[in-house]
Structures are given as C-alpha cells and as structure tokens.
C-alpha cells in the first residue's frame, strides 16, 4: 500500500485494522533485526501483515512454516488461506497434500465448507488419490447436501467433475439412496439417464480413471508347463518374463524381463517400485533380488537377503520390505528379514511362531497378516496370524474355514480375500473366503470358475483379479510345484458376488509373484 501510490503512502498516520496489536511490534523488530519467531499462534497474522507491507522474505518464511505443518486435518484450510493471500507456492503444496490424502480430507468438516470453485479444483483434479470413483461421488453429494438451499443449483456443475461412467450402476443406485434432498436426487437421476441413453450431454462418456488411481498388476517370473510356445524359458521351464495388466483397459502388456528367471519369488511394491526377491531356479534357492523402475522399464540388482528362500511371504510396509519364512535351504524357515531400500541392506528381525511356507502375506493399517501355508505339523493350515512390526508381537486370529496353502491373499476394502490354493488330498480349490478386519470373522464368497493354486492376484478399482496358477496336483512333486499351468484370468466384483472371465495371459504360468502399482 505504501509503494503503489495508494493514499496511505501520503499519510503520516495509517490505521491497520487487520493487524492485531501484538503482531506489528514483531514485524517492526523483524525490519530492524531480520529475526522473528514464528509459531502456530502468529503465523497467519504475520503472513497477512507481511503481505500487506510487502515483506516478501517474511511471507516466504511464514509459507515455509505452514508447509511443515501440513496435515490432512488442516490441508484444506491452509489451501484456502494461501489462495486468498496469493501464496501460490503454499497453495500448491496444500492442494497436493489434500489430493494425496483425499479419503481423509473428504470426510473432514473443512471439506463441507469449501467454496464452489475450490471444490471444483479438487473434483476435477487428475491427482486425487482414490481407489475408485465412488470415493469422489459420495463426498460431492455430501457437499451438495450440506447446504441444499444454496447449493442445489450447482448440482450439474459439481456432478460433471465426477467421472460417473466409471462407477457401476449398482453403486450409483446405492449412492442415490443416501441422498435426502429431492432436487439433488433428481439431478443425479437425470445424469444417470444421460449416461444410459448414451447422449453424453451432462457427463463425458469417455471418462478415464484419474492419473493417480490408474492401477496395473505386475506378474513376474513363475513356471510354464503346457504345450504352447512360450518365451524366455530357462531350465525346468522357469520364466524371467514380466507382464502388466491394466485393470481399467483390461489389457496385458509385456515389460522388460527380470535379470534372473525365478519360480516362487517374493514380489512386492514399495514407493512406486516393484521388488522381486529370492525364489528358486532349478534346484537352487535364491537370495538375490532386483527392483523394477516403471519410469524407465528397467530392472536393477539389490543386495541379497541374509538367507536364500523361496515360497515365502513378502510385503512392503512403512518404507521397508518384510520377508517371512519360506523354504530356507533344505527345510522350512521361521526367520523374518527386513530390507531398507535407502541403505540397500537386509537385516534379520525376529522369527515367526513356527516355520512355515506357501502362505499368503498382506499388510493392512500398520499390521501384517500371514494366512494359511504349510508347517511341520500340518501340510495345509487354516491359520491366520497377525504381526505388529512396531512391537514384533504376534497374535493368533480367527482361522479360515478351509485349510489351504499356495493360495492368493489380497486386501480389498476392509476384507482379506483368500483365493483358491492347494488343500488336503492333493485337491486344488475353487473356494474363496474373506476375513473381516473389523469383526475378526470369515465368510465364504462366490467360488472361482476354475480351480487354481499358485495364481497371481491383486485388487484395485473395486475388483479382484486372479491370473494363471496350476490346475491340478498330480503326483507327489505337485504338492509344491505346478504340473499343468493356466493362462485364464478371472475378475471378482464384490457387489455382484460373482467371478467372470477376463482377457487371458499371453502364455500360461503359475507360481509367479505379483504386485500392484
């Protein structure tokens, strides 16, 4: 105000009504000393006053302080504050934080108070981190219903930024049942009719998943035991090839192969990369590992594990990889190893309650779950164990309904799904059951169309996908090694409780590792 010709620049006395009495002395001291103490109680007042007085260095300092304080509970408030005061760098960081933590932010009271344009900025963003578009629809409807008298006129504008064609009709019907305001309900019904008739006047019928929600399943290594031609085989029909399945386009694509062919490796995603570790090649159990960089489609070596192992569990949690049990040398093992990708180093970190191989391992909300597998006591188990990495403690949870090993274990929503596997009397299962993390209970869901064990699996966009596996156990060797491998792929939709066929693998494989990116 003092450097752009406003009337205040000509006055000897200026009133600053927006600057609290305790803030101006701090700013005067800063002008003379170049030093100031910024805290939670003063930062916003200091930034407003510094912006008004054109103290850019202080504005920057306040902005850096607020960046360090970003949290899902305050990201939207800081975003609005920064935009109001034209702090675009801070606004960008706050917006990115809100987008990355969308499912927390969208359920906060601050979200319901957003102005229309800032809501649209969020809803239209490619960077919203969501598993499915229903996670955008429900908050949008809640925003409209928070003040229906004022907001119902914005229905079509708000809904136009939700990618409704990506939401199943059943989910849309369920969402419609939650709407209380008749005008908003009519708007949603109208949009549904627009989509059904294929007009596309109100929503884009060619909607694509948001950039941060596009998910692909990587399937690495494994074995192939059929009569068709298949690439990159070494001795004993072990594969080094890597395939990618786009869960939206329903297409398979071949990626760069691993440096080493592996059967029964541990495969897991961590920080946007995929790690393939251990496994078996011929009669040799492996300790070495490699990491895949999606940006350049290349694999590179990492440090080997302390113990060579195959048919073990591998999962990523809190910036580290955790490896559990498996075949270690000539016997099943109970050791746990932790990999630090920053230091490229494995360390032994405790033991499982008993040696085990052929189990499923997943993580959910800070805990790691080990399900099924084989022990010295039981060839196939019903066990569900829970490991807390923070304390190193193990707990025994409700057992599965069916004993199984070499089953696929996948988390979708608040459930752990256990799919197929080998069972007593050399049976390959079609059975699928799921565990409720909330209730500590199991229930059976629709069975697979085709029995399979040692299949690759993942979950995203509201569906499960299982690929390949072995179709039968014939002979003693088939207890742990595939005999006839499958190329078929199945998708499971929880709302319909049904499996349906999906595009098959380019060539059959079983006992591969899989990870979701």
Number of strands: 30
Shape: globular
Which range best describes the helical content: under 10%, 10-25%, 25-40%, 40-55%, 55-70% or over 70%? 10-25%
- In the sheet with the most strands, the strands line up as 3-2-1-30
Tally of helical segments: 13
CATH-derived topology of the domain at 215-516? Neuraminidase
Averaged pLDDT: 89
Q: Major β-sheet, in short?
A: 4 strands, antiparallel
Named at the architecture level, the CATH assignment of the domain at 215-516 is: 6 Propeller
CATH superfamily of the domain at 215-516: Kelch-type beta propeller
Pfam families: BACK (PF07707), BTB (PF00651), Kelch_1 (PF01344), Kelch_KLHDC2_KLHL20_DRC7 (PF24681)
Domain BACK: 75-177
GO molecular function: actin binding
Keywords: Actin-binding, Kelch repeat, Repeat, Ubl conjugation pathway
């Amino acid at each position: 105000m003092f450097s752009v010709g406003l009337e205040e620049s000509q006055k000897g006395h200026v009133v600053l009504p927006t600057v609290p009495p305790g803030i101006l002395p701090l700013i005067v001291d800063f002008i003379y000393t170049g030093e100031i103490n910024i805290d939670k109680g003063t930062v916003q007042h200091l930034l407003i006053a510094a912006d008004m007085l054109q103290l850019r260095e202080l504005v920057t300092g306040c902005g850096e302080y607020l960046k360090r304080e970003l949290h899902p509970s305050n990201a939207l408030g800081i975003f609005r504050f920064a935009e109001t005061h034209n702090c675009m760098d801070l606004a960008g960081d706050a917006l990115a934080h809100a987008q990355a933590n969308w499912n927390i932010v969208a359920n906060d009271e601050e979200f319901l108070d957003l102005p229309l344009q800032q809501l649209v900025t969020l809803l239209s963003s490619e960077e919203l981190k969501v598993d499915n578009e229903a996670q955008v629809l429900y908050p949008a409807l809640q925003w409209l219903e928070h003040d229906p008298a004022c907001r119902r006129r914005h229905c079509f504008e708000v809904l136009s930024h939700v990618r409704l064609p990506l939401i199943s009709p059943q989910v849309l019907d369920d969402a419609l049942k939650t709407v209380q305001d008749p005008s908003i309900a009519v708007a949603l019904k109208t949009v549904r009719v627009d989509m059904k008739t294929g007009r596309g006047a109100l929503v884009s019928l060619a909607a694509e998943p948001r950039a941060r929600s596009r998910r692909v399943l990587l399937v690495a290594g494994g074995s192939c035991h059929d009569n068709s031609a298949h690439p990159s085989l070494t001795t004993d029909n072990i594969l080094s090839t890597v395939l990618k399945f786009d869960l939206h386009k329903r297409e398979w694509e071949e990626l760069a192969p691993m440096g080493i062919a592996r059967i029964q490796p541990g495969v897991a995603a961590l920080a946007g990369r995929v790690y393939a570790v251990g496994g078996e090649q011929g009669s040799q159990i492996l300790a070495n590992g490699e990491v895949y960089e999606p940006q350049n489609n290349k694999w590179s070596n990492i440090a080997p594990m302390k113990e060579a192992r195959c048919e073990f569990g591998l999962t990523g949690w809190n910036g580290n990889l955790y490896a559990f049990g498996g075949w270690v040398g000539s016997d099943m093992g109970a050791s746990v190893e932790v990999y630090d990708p920053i230091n490229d180093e494995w360390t032994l970190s405790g033991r499982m309650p008993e040696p085990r191989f052929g189990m499923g391992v997943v993580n959910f909300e800070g805990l790691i779950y080990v399900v099924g597998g084989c022990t010295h006591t039981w060839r196939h188990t019903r066990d569900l164990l829970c490991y807390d990495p923070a304390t190193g403690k193990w707990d025994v949870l409700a057992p599965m309904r069916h004993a199984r090993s070499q089953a696929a274990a996948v988390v979708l929503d608040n459930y752990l799904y256990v799919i197929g596997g080998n069972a007593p009397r050399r049976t390959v299962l079609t059975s699928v059951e799921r565990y409720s993390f909330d209730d500590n209970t199991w229930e059976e869901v629709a069975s697979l169309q085709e029995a399979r064990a040692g299949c690759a699996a993942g979950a995203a966009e509201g569906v499960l996908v299982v690929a390949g596996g072995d179709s039968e156990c014939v002979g003693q060797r088939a207890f742990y090694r595939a005999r006839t491998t499958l190329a078929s792929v199945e998708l499971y939709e929880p709302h319909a409780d049904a499996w349906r066929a999906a595009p098959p693998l380019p060539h059959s494989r079983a006992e591969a590792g899989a990870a979701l990116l």
